[in-house]
């Protein structure tokens, strides 16, 4: 499936009326819900492989625990920077930029996003790829879609995950973060489907590959309105685009500050 068709499917899904499968705030009824949802997603273009992955999903208690306990976003900026290891991210980010300047310059030339921002996100999300998660992606996204708190938000990402399984971009066994995010910079599956880039030119989009992941990140920010050459600190035009990456104010501030220090 091409990206424009995938985007159209996700757009239709976002606008769709309430669906039949019943959500729950506990694990009760998850198997019945999977069976109902597997029938529903046929209308969204999900094929046999994707539906089989959904039917094989398990209710993820670890995902629910993580979703209920996002304490760090309530910290002060300074505490958040300390807890998330900002100094180490800045130091490693500078070293990575110095080691491979042409790579980051190429991304900025193509997408307009400076190295500092991409490196700050990469460091913040996975410690530069050192830990990309240990939770089954389809199970995590299915659990969050089944959960009543944010069913409507996660349903397009469930469809995205199942379409990625159909495409062979991920498998039913692929792992990611606790909320089902994928790869070096932790893309939710619907966003991976819509904004994914084949950065290394091997004919496939693999967000566990750093080149693909950073090209996808830069493309996402550009498509969300990044203006090349303009500032990204709080109050400057591109700070609003960082908000599109993460809704937590302290996270946005941290990315802007670390990015500026990496860029020098």
From TrEMBL:
<dbReference type="InterPro" id="IPR031304">
    <property type="entry name" value="SLT_2"/>
</dbReference>
<protein>
    <submittedName>
        <fullName>Lytic transglycosylase domain-containing protein</fullName>
    </submittedName>
</protein>
<dbReference type="Pfam" id="PF13406">
    <property type="entry name" value="SLT_2"/>
</dbReference>
<dbReference type="InterPro" id="IPR043426">
    <property type="entry name" value="MltB-like"/>
</dbReference>
<dbReference type="InterPro" id="IPR023346">
    <property type="entry name" value="Lysozyme-like_dom_sf"/>
</dbReference>
<feature type="domain" description="Transglycosylase SLT">
    <location>
        <begin position="30"/>
        <end position="232"/>
    </location>
</feature>
<feature type="signal peptide">
    <location>
        <begin position="1"/>
        <end position="20"/>
    </location>
</feature>
<keyword id="KW-0732">Signal</keyword>
């Amino acid at each position: 499936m091409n990206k424009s068709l995938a985007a159209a499917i996700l757009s239709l899904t976002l606008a769709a009326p309430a669906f039949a499968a019943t959500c729950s705030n506990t694990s009760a009824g998850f198997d019945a819900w999977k069976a109902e949802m597997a029938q529903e997603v046929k209308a969204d273009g999900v094929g046999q492989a994707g539906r089989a992955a959904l039917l094989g999903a398990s209710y993820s208690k670890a995902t629910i625990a993580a979703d209920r306990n996002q304490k760090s976003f309530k910290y002060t900026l300074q505490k958040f920077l300390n807890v998330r290891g900002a100094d180490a991210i800045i130091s490693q980010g500078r070293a990575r930029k110095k080691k491979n300047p042409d790579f980051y310059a190429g991304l900025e030339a193509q997408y307009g996003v400076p190295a500092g921002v991409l490196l700050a996100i990469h460091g913040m999300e996975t410690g530069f790829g050192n830990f990309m998660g240990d939770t089954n992606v389809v199970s995590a996204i299915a659990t969050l879609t089944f959960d009543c708190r944010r069913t409507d938000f996660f349903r397009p990402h469930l469809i995205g995950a199942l379409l990625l399984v159909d495409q062979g971009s991920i498998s039913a066994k692929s792992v990611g973060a606790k909320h089902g995010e994928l790869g070096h910079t932790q893309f939710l599956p619907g966003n991976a489907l819509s904004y994914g880039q084949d950065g290394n030119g091997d004919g496939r989009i693999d967000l566990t590959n750093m080149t693909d992941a950073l090209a996808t990140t830069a493309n996402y920010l550009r498509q969300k309105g990044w203006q090349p050459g303009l500032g990204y600190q709080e109050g400057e035009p591109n700070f609003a685009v960082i908000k599109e990456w993460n809704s937590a104010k302290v996270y946005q501030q941290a990315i802007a500050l670390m990015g500026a220090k990496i860029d020098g």
